[in-house]
Specification:
Layout: H1 2-18, E1 25-29, E2 41-47, E3 65-71, E4 74-80, H2 91-94, H3 96-104, E5 108-117, E6 127-134, H4 163-176, E7 180-187, H5 196-205, E8 209-211, H6 215-223, E9 227-237, H7 248-257, H8 259-274
Parallel strand pairs: 1-4, 1-5, 5-9, 6-7, 7-8
Antiparallel strand pairs: 2-3, 3-4, 5-8, 6-9
Bound molecules: hypoxanthine.
Hypoxanthine is lined by residues 114-116, 193-194, 210-212, 235-236, 238, 246, 251.
């Protein structure tokens, strides 16, 4: 775990040699959202491969780059691409981009992803604001010696997805003219998609959508005292909900089809949460 902290400190020093830019909000881009970077006035771009020991994605459709810049007047760090647990990385590596964003100064984070729809009111191309998550099927990114400089050993998770941020994302969706569902996201390890029996189980657990990322990042972000919100793009209906076989191609195609709408929603979300203040004393 000290190794993980050393790596973060080295990455931070590397970036600080280039720029003293301090982002207010971090944005993690999921599948098909790489184009969102064009909404930002970018001052500094760093490839993950330049950063010492930083994890680099092996999945097609996931670039690995960190951008520092402004969206309208909101200073942001955009994480273009993420790594997944199923790639073989430790959970501490998976959440390294989130922690680095925190060390750069980001107080809030917007997570995005592509997910399978479980709730039948969703359909491919729908957007879902994550109200809460189920992360019990994946290892916690906080396992191991606690990094005290980031957060406490036993962090509270009773409101991972910030109430005020969620209200602001709903307003952003109205401004973007997008219908926004709200629900519970369940994270699996992947990389295989689920079986219909698993999806039936997840339905009973109260999950509305399923995916292979995000909840672990939200946990690391809350541990580090960040305010969190997250939006899923429903790229397909989960196994057994639709009779069709699932494929990564379908996920990428849907994400691409609705990417312009997702980018607009994300832009409005950055403006909305970028204007929100820092949380009270208890979070620091
Ligand atoms: N299951 C898990 N992860 C996913 C899915 C799915 O159906 N769609 C996109 N990511």
């Amino acid at each position: 775990m000290e190794g993980s902290w050393d790596m973060l400190k080295q990455c931070l020093s590397y970036i600080r040699e280039k720029t003293d830019f301090t982002p207010h909000i971090a944005v993690v881009l999921g599948s098909g959202l790489g184009g969102f970077a064009s909404w930002a006035e970018v001052f500094c771009s760093v490839d993950y491969s330049e950063l010492p020991r930083f994890p680099v994605s092996t999945v097609s459709g996931h670039e690995g780059r960190l951008l520092l810049g402004d969206i309208a007047s909101v200073p942001v760090v955009i994480m273009q691409g993420r790594v997944h647990y199923y790639e073989g990385y430790d959970m501490q590596d998976v959440v390294a981009p989130v922690r680095l964003a925190r060390l750069l100064g980001a107080e809030g984070i917007i997570l995005t992803n592509a997910a399978g729809g479980i709730n039948r009111t969703l359909s491919p191309g729908s957007f879902m604001l994550i109200r809460d998550h189920i992360a019990s099927l994946v290892p916690s990114p906080l396992i191991g010696a606690n990094i005290e400089r980031l957060g406490t050993r036993f962090p509270d998770m009773s409101e991972v997805y910030d109430r005020e941020y969620r209200a602001l994302v709903k307003q952003a969706a109205e401004r973007a003219g997008t219908v926004l569902h709200e629900g519970v996201y369940l994270q699996t390890t992947g990389p295989q998609y689920e079986t219909p029996a698993e999806i039936e189980l997840f339905t009973r657990w109260g999950a509305d959508a399923v995916g292979m990322s995000t909840a672990c990042e939200a946990i690391a972000a809350r541990h580090a005292g960040m305010r969190v919100c997250a939006i899923s793009c429903i790229s397909n209906m989960a196994a057994g909900i639709s009779s069709e076989a699932l494929s990564h191609e379908e996920v990428k195609q849907t994400a691409k089809r609705v990417s312009a709408q997702f980018e607009r929603l994300l832009y409005e979300t950055v403006l909305a949460v970028g204007g929100a203040g820092v949380r009270g004393e208890e979070e620091t």
